[in-house]
Amino acid sequence: MNFAYYPGCSLTTSAKDYDLSARAVMTALGVGLEEITDWNCCGASAAPSVDPFLGVALSARNLALAEANQRDVAVACPSCYTNLRRARAAATAATEVGMRARESLQEGGYRVSGESKVRHLVDIIVHEVGLGAVRSRVKRPLTGLMVAPYYGCQLSRPDGSFANPEIPREMDELLRALGAEPVWWNGRTKCCGASAMLTQESSALHLVDRLLTNASESGAQIIATACSLCHMNLDAYQGRVNGDLGTAHRMPVIYFTQLMGIALGLEPSRLGLGKAFVPAPVLDPYLEGVRA
Amino acid sequence: MTARIGVYICHCGTNISAKVDCEAVTRYAATLAGVVVSRAYKYMCSDPGQDMIKDDIKEHGLNRVVVASCSPRMHEVTFRRALAEAGLNPYLLEMANIREGVSWVTKDKLEATIKARALVRGAVERVALHAELEDSYVPASKDVLVVGGGIAGITAALKLAHSGIKVTLVERDPSIGGQMARFDKTFPTLDCSACILTPKMVEVAQHPNIELLTLAEVSKVDGFIGNFDVTIKVKPRSVDVDLCTGCGTCWEKCPKKVASEFDMNLGQRKAIYVPFPQAVPNKPVIDRANCTYYATGKCKACEILCPAKAIRFDQEEQVVTRRVGAIIMATGYELPDVGQEIPQYGYGRFDGVMTGLEFERLANASGPTEGKIVGRGGKEPKAVAVLHCVGSRDESRPQCSRICCMASLKTSHLVKERTGAEVYEFYIDMRSFGKGYEEFYNKVRDEGIRMIRGKVADIEEVGDRLVVKSEDTLRGVTVAIPVDMVVLSTALVPRKDAGEVAACFGITRGAEGFFTEEHPKLEPLKTATEGIFLAGACQGPKDIPDTVAQATGAATEVFVKLSTGMVKIPATIAAVDEPRCSGCQTCLTVCPYGALAYDAAAKVVRLTKAKCHGCGTCVASCPSGALHLLGFESHQILAQIEGVCAL
Predict the structure, then answer these.
(1) Closest approach of A186 to chain B, Cα-based (Å)
(2) Would B595 disulfide with which of A37, A179, B163, B611, CB 3.0-4.6 Å?
(3) What is the value of pTM for the model shown?
(4) What domains appear along chain B, each with residue ranges and CATH number?
């Protein structure tokens, strides 16, 4: 099983640990990720809000590159995932924006037909690899670990490969397959503030506080995320939340791929562990004997 | 006979003339072979328009007429009648549809005019080949089948029965009454629902002109208006209703308890039961899927203790047939699966979240709580949220439920009256359109109900309460209100098996799944199938006043249709050219109506005229060209195509 891998900008910078662990885990599961050569930024949230055409064309170019290799695209970042999916629909539609996007791609020698599907890693692992196959590969089950599965707002919405876009359970089931205990919490698809952290910081800090409070009240020892921006807000801004709002959160945040890597018994150095701001001593028992 | 054709181009106000140059088409028509008169007029369907045709027929000796106007579905009957009134066979008419087919769907004026000319030429070439045809009449049964025993079916059955017509009322459940029997109060008058419904239910049971079949479903419908042959499967009640006195010993003594469907699974009933105290017929039924005897062969408590010896474990399903002249569909509605559709409201996950129909059972004195309103944890709520438009008016189901504004107000009123709780209504728009509805809204609002304009985004379980989150669009803020109970005023949706029912009766459904009326404004009670009519929410969401009005209307339609005891068979049906028939019987396999039969002695196929719908399938299948469709002969259609393509 091979995919054209689209890491996206944040996975090459602030979320290197996501990228490392994703590649390691997918390899261990027998899924080939071939990074798209010469990929460009998906446009993030900036491009589509400034110019709808640009939002479509930027991501459509990445799709065209994947199509040229006849591969479906595997994505880790939910924002990239949303942009690529939106571009796939828009660039093949009979609308003005779609026509402009196709024309401009053509000028650069690219062609997009929508043949390549856009798949998120959670979707690929749950629906292609299968939870049974994951379970059979678990070497160090995460028994007793209480994890808050955090989908964020974009991963399952508006609708795609998740059975229930409003109350997704796929990551819960994945965590259970690793031996961990997913907690039921209200924050699972609530917004972390996303890029508002840069423009409306106090509002975003309140959102983060609400999520951290809800997770710990629900009995979680750690939050598992599938989004680099969520990770940034929940982890890197946790100190700011404590400082500004007078709270005392110490909630570790981890990429779901990192938890998978631990459970599959992969070398910790390949998982980018220890890069987060909030330490995660709760993971120590599961790393005993393997940590260098 | 040389064709003397009159061509009439209708402006339809500006509906056609805004796009089609009607004068140009008129001048063009005058140049066509056989055309004697060619005229345009503002409204051909009006009396002066029709008079113009009639006068020309007399004055110019016309023997063929072409009207280029709207779809023949609109006015073919009108113009055929005009021809008949002028002494011409009505089938010597041909219509060219230049409104729905041209002016409404063409942007460019020149293109529209060219297309209209082509259609007119096709019609002229075709009409020259028309032959005189005669309608025929067959005797019609005056009996009527009503399907569904809710307030719609009950109303229709009673109106017909009162006028002397024999009615067979078929109900799937053990009792008639439908959804209305579940309600506690009805808006806007707050009458007790049972108090106004049960007298009608009893009247149905006692009326000599009504045959009531409960636990029954129609499985097959053959025939046509005036002569429908209906097959009905009647499931066994396992009780001899003639012997049973309804004393209640059996269900008191029955040891098996299961969830009560009538109480929306909130309460319990026994395995032998009457669904509710005022059920009609007020005789118990054994739920064989849950009865201990059918599972283990033991128990028989009801049989042993029945003083009337009325229990019949070996009763079998019966199949009965009825011949009726007309059918009224009154199969009602159901609620969507809101837990699946809108999971963020927590229906099925959170204690205290319920549908409006479940609330009705809670509020009802004969319901599972004897009318005590309870929220989370079985306690009386201190605060209640009532949500409008749940599953309605959104992208997946755009239509308005029509009842949920008033139903929500009624819910709020009952909660306030009986518990004094703080009540929050979340609405999108307050649609109080009916008689007394706006007054009802004002009354309930003045009772201190808090009205919040906004669609609820999410409901969370926080501690032992539910927090309802919404935008308040009038204040421009978001709100998060803790409550102990949430009532979802849901959409009304078609019955799950509405598709199969439609196929069984040969009627059509709209995009939203409800049965479709023949015309949304002018024929709201008829289906496209002659002799089958609609009443109540099976045609679309409806409140009780509208349902009763429609059911009464449907009964009247039936009465009018069957009053002469004869029904018309249109002339445009198939015909067998017997000398050419080889007796291969291919047509028998394709006819959807069973209208063809093989005459083994004559070795040819024969047609039962009254059963033929004129669909033409047999004509297409006939390898020897022995079958014709009168009025749609090959040479007529080919001439029309050549005419259209000649331009």
Answers:
(1) 7
(2) B611
(3) 0.79
(4) 5-135 (3.40.50), 144-235+317-333+494-562 (3.50.50.60), 249-305 (no CATH), 336-491 (3.50.50.60), 573-629 (3.30.70.20)
